[in-house]
Amino acid sequence: MTTESAPYGKAAIPLRATIILVGTLGSIYMISQFLRNSVAVIAPNLAQELHLSASEIGVLASAFFFSFAAAQIPLGIALDRYGPKICMLVCGGIAAIGAVMFALTTSPTGLIAARILMGLGSSCYLMAPLALYARRYPPHQFASLTGIQMGLGSIGTLVATAPFAFAVAAIGWRGTFFGVAMLMVLVTVCVMLVVREDGAAPRFEPKTESFRESLAGLMAAIRTPSVVPIFFMHLVTHASFVLVVGLWGGPYLTHIYGFDLTQRGNMLFAAAVAQVAAAFVWGPSDRLFRCYKMPVLFGAASTALTLGVVAVLGVLPSGWLLLWFILVGALSAYTPVMIAHGKSLFPPHLVGRGITLLNMGTMGGVFLAQVLSGFLIDLFPVTDGAYALDAYRLVFGLQAAAMLAACLVYLLKVRDPWRELHGPPSP
């Protein structure tokens, strides 16, 4: 994928076309976000219905992220060779099949297989849109478009909280997943109709490079200066949010505070709303600070501090508990700036493989955090089906420590090319 054909010196893409494109791509990203974060609300239900341990819940939740991360390298090559539209259409079908399978299966193994399919199917709905934005819009708009894309997608995380709890209470989690599968099919058809790679939009030209040349391009992306240290920041950033809102936040509220399905859904809803709103603010923050590193470091360090509060105190008063969930959502929404920073490190012909490589770190980090946290929680005694408070304190504390370590590496080892790309401030 290249940005060389992007129409920086040509007529701008009409606002109406941009709204339709971003709305469509944001909608399918919403569904993928729902699928990835849909375990937290129903985790206690799954554990009771299928007699799952904490480690099994962790494996179930993380299976999505394992397949998602594993798909990133071939996805980066596919984006460069075949274009974003084909990738999104194929992935839409896989995700729909996975959601139907999740709705119908009755065994833990079947649920894990379904999560793997959903992860594969959802693997392109951030990277493919970003590939389109990188080709069609000027560099100074990329972080803002990324923020909008992630903000819209975060609505899917929001739906995976209180609205999902309401749907589960009304039609059950199986019926809800079947409905989501049908919605995925519908939105995939919209992608087929709306996303164009000819006509008014710059035409995508598939590459004819060999597989060996594709791998050589991947290795060139890995060897790009600053990529390895920024990869470590990607490992912990999204994992911190998903560890709470996508997995252990629901059980923590139920086991420690006695929250029921609706109450834990509402609390997770607050965190998701905070992230949706904050993503739109974080998106253009690089232009405010005229750099990438400062907003990323502020967001990461603040998120680590927030997780550390519960690691130290364990239990919070009800008012402070709500604030804690809001802060987890809002402070961890700096990802658009970090993605824009990562993209800025790569030459145009490596952008597709570069951003998918970093996204592999993002999803791989979630996989590692969820699997390891499940095994850690299982080290503590279970009382009447409830996990120990000290288990949650350990999980959140270790994640906070990992974030602070990544911040140090990011601060010292990653270069910031913002001024090279955007120039000095206007007089």
Which descriptors apply to this entry?
mainly alpha, 427 residues, disordered N terminus, single chain, Growth Hormone, Chain: A, 78% helix
Quick summary of this structure?
It is built from 19 helices and no strands. The protein is mostly helical and 427 residues long.
H and E string: HHHHHHHHHHHHHHHHHHH
Q: Structural class per helix/strand content?
A: mainly alpha
**How many H/I helices?**
19
Instruction: Calculate the mean pLDDT score and round it.
Output: 87
Strand content: under 5%
CATH fold label: Growth Hormone, Chain: A
Radius of gyration: 21 Å
Characterize the overall form.
globular
Please name the CATH architecture. Answer: Up-down Bundle
- Tell me how many strands there are: 0
The profile of the biggest β sheet is: none
Integer count of domains: 1
Name the poorly predicted regions.
1-11, 199-204
> Span from first to last CA?
35 Å
Helix residue percentage: over 70%
CATH superfamily: MFS general substrate transporter like domains
Would you state the CATH class? Answer: Mainly Alpha
